[in-house]
């Protein structure tokens, strides 16, 4: 505080104003004394009051001179004397702006607090997500291990299945009595045959199938066979009979196996019909030696 007054105070101005005011006061006192002694009257006043009036006027002059000098030399004095209302309005506006700024700052602090809470919640969520992610990674690692073990197990099962399939194919190939699409028997039918003759011919064809199958098997397999069951589609067989009865030319019926048949299994027949063309007439020699 002492440094403030010693550094910023215009002592020369103060001394000048004091000395000037003292001089003006002394001059006013002399003028008042002189006018009072000479009994001079101003504005019809008595000399005593005239002397007092002169002294008061000199005091006012001193005040005016002091204010004028301060106004000329100091911007703050001019502002305080001539712009006080403006300064007060500015001060009110500044206070209002400060109040608004404080409200905005308070709102900003509240928002910042909410954002901080949100950030803390987000950080907590991220921590939980990291834990979940680590758990999922561990589970994924375990699942990959289980997958590798299952793949190895599946590969072993596939190899075992392939071995079993090969063994089964070997067993079937050794035990197959009739292969698929094998011609087992054939019989010709003359045009104009009766239904009884066609039916009997088909039964003879089936019996021929049994005999041909017996010729194909070995003696060891034959010892295990008691009967050779045969089956055919009844509807297809009935339709075949109608086709034979309606045929105008000589025809034939072939009995084929629909699939591979092992020893002891039922032989599924597929009956096919076709036209029989005459190659050599009955009684014509096929070969003649000269």
Summarize the entry for a quick read.
With 290 residues, the chain is α+β, with helices and mostly antiparallel strands.
Which structural class matches the secondary elements? alpha+beta
Secondary-structure element order, N to C: HHHHHEEHHEHEEE
Q: How would you sum up the major sheet?
A: 4 strands, mixed
N- to C-terminal separation?
164 Å
Detail the poorly predicted runs: 1-6
Shape: rod-shaped
Overall radius of gyration: 70 Å
Strand content: 5-15%
Question: How are the strands of the biggest sheet laid out side by side?
Answer: 2-4-6-3
Q: How many domains in all? A: 3
Number of helices: 8
Helix content: 55-70%
Q: How many strands appear in the DSSP assignment? A: 6
Mean pLDDT: 77
Question: Can you put this structure into words, describing what you see?
Answer:
With 290 residues, the protein is α+β, with helices and mostly antiparallel strands. 69% of the residues lie in helices and 10% in strands. The strands form two sheets. It has a four-stranded mixed beta sheet with strand order 2-4-6-3. Strands 1-5 form a two-stranded antiparallel ribbon. Helix 2 packs antiparallel against helix 3 (47-73) and helix 3 packs across helix 4 (75-82). The longest helix is centred in the middle third of the chain and has 92 residues, at 84-175. It is rod-shaped. The model is unreliable at 1-6 (pLDDT under 50).
């Amino acid at each position: 505080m002492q440094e403030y007054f010693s550094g910023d105070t215009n002592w020369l101005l103060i001394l000048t104003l004091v000395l000037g005011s003292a001089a003006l006061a002394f001059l006013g006192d002399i003028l008042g004394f002189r006018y009072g002694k000479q009994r001079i009257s101003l504005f019809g006043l008595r000399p005593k009051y005239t002397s007092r009036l002169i002294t008061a006027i000199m005091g006012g002059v001193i005040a005016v001179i002091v204010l004028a000098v301060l106004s000329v030399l100091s911007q703050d004095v001019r502002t305080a004397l001539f712009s006080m209302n403006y300064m007060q309005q500015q001060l009110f506006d500044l206070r209002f702006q400060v109040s608004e700024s404080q409200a905005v700052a308070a709102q900003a602090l509240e928002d910042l607090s909410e954002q901080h809470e949100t950030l803390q919640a987000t950080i907590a969520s991220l921590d939980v997500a990291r834990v979940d992610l680590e758990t999922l990674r561990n589970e994924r690692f375990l699942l990959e291990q289980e997958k590798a073990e299952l793949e190895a197990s599946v590969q072993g099962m596939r190899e075992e299945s392939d071995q079993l399939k090969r063994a089964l194919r070997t067993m079937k190939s050794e035990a197959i009595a009739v292969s698929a699409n094998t011609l087992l028997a054939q019989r010709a039918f003359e045009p104009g045959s009766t239904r009884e003759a066609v039916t009997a011919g088909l039964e003879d064809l089936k019996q021929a199938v049994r005999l041909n199958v017996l010729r194909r098997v070995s003696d060891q397999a034959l010892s295990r066979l008691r009967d050779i069951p045969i089956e055919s589609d009844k509807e297809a067989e009935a339709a075949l009979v109608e086709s034979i009865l309606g045929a105008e030319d000589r025809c034939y019926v072939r009995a084929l196996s629909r699939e591979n048949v092992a020893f002891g299994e039922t032989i599924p027949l597929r009956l096919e019909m076709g036209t029989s063309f005459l190659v050599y007439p009955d009684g014509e020699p096929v070969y003649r030696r000269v």
